[in-house]
Amino acid sequence: MTSEETTRVGDLHSHLVPAVDDGARTLEEALEAVERMVAAGIGQIVTTPHVNASLTHDSSLLGTLLAEVDESWQELAEQVRERFPEVELFRGHEVMLDVPDPDFSDARLRLAGTSFVLVEWPRLQIPPRTTQVIERIASAGYRPILAHPERYAGIKRELDSAGAWRSAGAYLQVNHGSFIGRYGPDARSVASELLIRGWVDYLSSDFHARAHLGIHLRDAEDFFTAHDGLEQFQLLTVTNPGRVIRDQPPLPVAPMPISEGFWDGFKKIFKG
Ligand SMILES: [Fe+2]
User: Fold this and answer.
1) What's this model's pTM, rounded to 2 decimal places?
2) CA–centroid distance, residue 86 to ligand 1 (Å)
3) Nearest alpha carbon to residue 13 among 151, 127, 168, 160
4) Residues with beta carbon < 5 A to ion ligand 1?
5) Mind listing the pLDDT tens digit for each residue in 18-37?
6) Class for domain 9-271, per CATH?
7) How far apart are the CA of 141 and the centre of ligand 1, in A?
8) Per residue in 135-183, pLDDT tens?
9) What is the spatial distance between Cα 191 and Cα 10, in angstroms, rounded to a whole number?
């Protein structure tokens, strides 16, 4: 096996850097989170604290914030190296697009210093002109990965937007927990529909490092197994995240035929 190949699950979206966002509050909490992620089988972790895109235009404020994250991340990385030498830890950010023209020139804003950037729409809403925003980021030479498309308000009615974002140059990252209803029934059905259309590029945890929150990688695996999608699961959790770390575009993930549940079909008959 060469270093180009990997069988380790990669996680591109997590909030583990202590005391910089709404994720881990302390180093201890972050290390407990890593321990649970490792137990679930995750071997490559990109930490992605929240940052607002508007901040990328204020070099002084951005410098202060990134210096804080640097310090906290270094402490975490040192402990992870010592306690979990099998884990590869990378840094990045989750950039909330509160302005349409983020400046990604600082490599610390990008995933593992590559051309990939993890972005999200503000306040889990879909703002106007989203396709142009994606196009602008892509034309600046970056590869936007849109975090949890299944979670945005109204996406169920506007699923074609997700296709438009992909055509404009975005890749889509769905959360592991979405397949078991962790974010509600709409997010669950949108996550399935995105798989049916072959529009999902990555699965990640979006883990916020709190003891009461679950790690849902294995729940997601059960879902894919039940729908005969283990090939897709491997691409979404191992191959494609590994390719991000190597700054390579994802491999295509074949559409997954997901049959409706018995009761869903039943309801349709009665309605129809
Ligand atoms: Fe997140």
Assistant:
1) 0.94
2) 24
3) 151
4) 94, 206
5) 999 999 999 999 999 999 99
6) alpha beta
7) 23
8) 999 999 999 999 999 999 999 999 999 999 999 999 999 999 999 999 9
9) 19
